[in-house]
Amino acid sequence: MPKTLKESIVFTIICAWIMVYFMTLYNIVIAEGNFTNSTFLIALKSMWIDYVIIGLFSFLVASRIAPKLAFRIARPDDRPIVIIFCVQIFMIILMVAFASIIGVYHTYGFTRNFIPDYLTTYCRNFIMAFPVQMVIAGPVTRFLFRRIFKQG
Predict the structure, then answer these.
(1) What is the 3-state secondary structure (H, E, C) of 31-82?
(2) Count of Cβ atoms closer than 10 Å to residue 11 Cβ
């Protein structure tokens, strides 16, 4: 998909925004125990610092590691969708691992129970991040990316 630095930045901006918004929304619902119309606005207002941190981590770290891990499973001559899904899965694994550190800090702080809190947070977030990335964020980002950077 992205071929240039500019394209990679735009792709990351779009995908990170979608994922951080949905995951912020999800974590607010988990923390408050209910979902109201105002939850959408609360998530939108409270996501920005996490969005910058997650976006930078995604662009600078995960986007370089995930393809390397993906090509341990997929081959360059595999169908493009297989490669895309492999990269997406490793991005999810890496991003949830990093974002869960932020989540533990927000929810519990860094306490003696960091490891159990982290594992709980990782598992809870992975359950939501996987379908959001595969069904919403990935396809929407690719759709928007293709509209912004029309090939040929």
Answers:
(1) HHCCCCHHHHHHHHHHCHHHHHHHHHHHHHHHHHHHHHHHCCCCCCCCCHHH
(2) 21
Residues in the chain: 152
Residue 108, Cβ density class (10 Å: 0-12 exposed, 13-18 middle, ≥19 buried)? middle
CB half-sphere exposure, 116, CA atoms < 13 A: 3
Q: Are 18 and 143 in contact (CB under 8 A)?
A: no
For the cut 70, the answer to whether the pLDDT of residue 91 exceeds it is yes
Buried b (16+ CB within 10 A) or exposed e, 16-30: bbbbbbbbbbbbbbe
Q: And the tokens for 54?
A: 């997650």
Query: 51-61: per-residue pLDDT in tens?
Result: 999 999 999 99
In three-state secondary structure terms, 109 is coil
Higher pLDDT pick, 1 / 95: 95
